[in-house]
Amino acid sequence: MSISWRTDFPGGNGLLLEVDESADRPVLRFAAEPRNCPQALWFHFRVTALAGRAARIVLANPEQTLGGVDWSANRPVARRQPRPWARIGTPQRLQTPGGRVEWAWDLDAGGDAVELAHCFPYQLADLDATLDELGGAFQKTMIGLTLGSRPLPRVFSSLPDAGRPAVMLTARHHAGETPGSWVLDGLLRHVAAEKRLYESITWWAVPIVDLDDAIAGSYGKDPWPHDCNRAYGPPGPRRPEVGAVQRDAERLKGAAKRVFFADIHAPGHGEQANYVPLRGWDPDSPANPIAEEFALAFQAACPEDIRSPTSHVAPSPTAFIYAGMSSRTWAQTVLGAEAISLEISYQGNGTTYYGMDDYHRLGAALAQAISARLLGSGKQ
Ligand SMILES: [Zn+2]
């Protein structure tokens, strides 16, 4: 039976260009699909009928990905069920006759099926599994519909009251940025396990803002028709998901003692650092007065083995410019809350490549840094 390639599942992405089964080790050449975006990045596909053979997987369009052509230090993730997802090695550089660069990862022999993804996938089913595991510590409600008519979930620990601070968390404004989801997943787990944090703060989170693109397998950066994280205005929201987040955050702010807003992202594909931008990426965006202080607190809260070498960056004026207001700028300037955005690497911190548990530990550190800001740093 010849090799089969599938992407028809939530989060699937990757166009198979060719299969060469002439050698003992089949070669599968694919491209990360831009779908509705100017740049590609996310991929997640399933290969079957390997019949125990090793395989070589070749990414054919790295120069179309956000972060550019150099994938030399990137270690995607693979899963051979029932084993869990794990990192594979770094790739080999291939040069095409016309001068383009492609990257090849070699997979060991074993089993009939393998799944490969740019980073650990995270879909609604993963969120639901975590909520089940946490035994009702967090509930889920719908705050509106997406552009594609899907109910947009928000999870919450409690209803707000005027005597207690609150946190509004968002992830996946850019659908393929799954490190943000694993960090948020770790934060929820930590909060559920820490009585003081759970009871002293109201925790709300919209775990997958661009749900349509997450399910469709799109990277979701600057997608058609609008980037969710550039759709906060002005004048009004340009995406229904964003309007739903805005109304929800306003309700939380109106009822809670104060609100801290945190939006979690992932940077270019190969960056090996986590950081808080000191202002938005657009040249005229306002500085964030709390960014550096919070960035240092988060960095210090991270366990040493997974701590980022940098805590914050001042965005370069030569960076890509996407018109429209981001969630953090909106939360800071319109909602009037303390707000940060946080970039979490797809790879690691330059010495350790992150596993799923490491992202969870970063989430616990984020919970600690936010709680210390809202409650003071008193130990239990
Ligand atoms: Zn992003």
Furnish the topology, listing elements before pairings.
Layout: E1 4-6, E2 15-20, E3 27-31, E4 44-48, E5 55-59, E6 77-79, E7 86-87, E8 92-95, E9 101-107, E10 114-117, H1 124-133, E11 139-145, E12 151-156, E13 166-171, H2 178-193, H3 195-200, E14 202-206, H4 211-216, H5 240-255, E15 259-265, E16 276-277, H6 291-301, E17 312-313, H7 327-335, E18 338-343, H8 356-375
Parallel strand pairs: 3-5, 13-14, 13-15, 15-18, 16-17
Antiparallel strand pairs: 1-4, 2-3, 4-10, 5-9, 6-7, 6-10, 8-9, 11-12, 12-14
Helix pairs in contact: 2-8, 6-8
The structure holds zinc ion.
What's the short story on this structure?
The protein is of the alpha/beta class and 380 residues long. The chain has eight helices and 18 strands. It folds into two domains: 4-117, Immunoglobulin-like, CATH 2.60.40; 124-375, 3-Layer(aba) Sandwich (Aminopeptidase), CATH 3.40.630.
Task: Note down, in words, how this protein is organized.
The chain has 380 residues and is α/β, with parallel strands linked by helices. The protein folds into two domains: 4-117, Immunoglobulin-like (Sandwich); 124-375, Aminopeptidase, CATH 3.40.630. The protein is 25% helix and 22% strand. The protein is built from eight helices and 18 strands. The chain has helices spanning 124-133, 178-193, 195-200, 211-216, 240-255, 291-301, 327-335, 356-375; strands at 4-6, 15-20, 27-31, 44-48, 55-59, 77-79, 86-87, 92-95, 101-107, 114-117, 139-145, 151-156, 166-171, 202-206, 259-265, 276-277, 312-313, 338-343. The chain has a six-stranded mixed β-sheet with strand order 11-12-14-13-15-18, with helices on both faces. The protein has a five-stranded antiparallel β-sheet with strand order 1-4-10-6-7, with no helix packed on it. α6 (291-301) packs across α8 (356-375). The longest helix has 20 residues, at 356-375. The protein is globular. The mean pLDDT is 96. The structure holds zinc ion (ZN). The site of zinc ion has 5 residues, from loops.
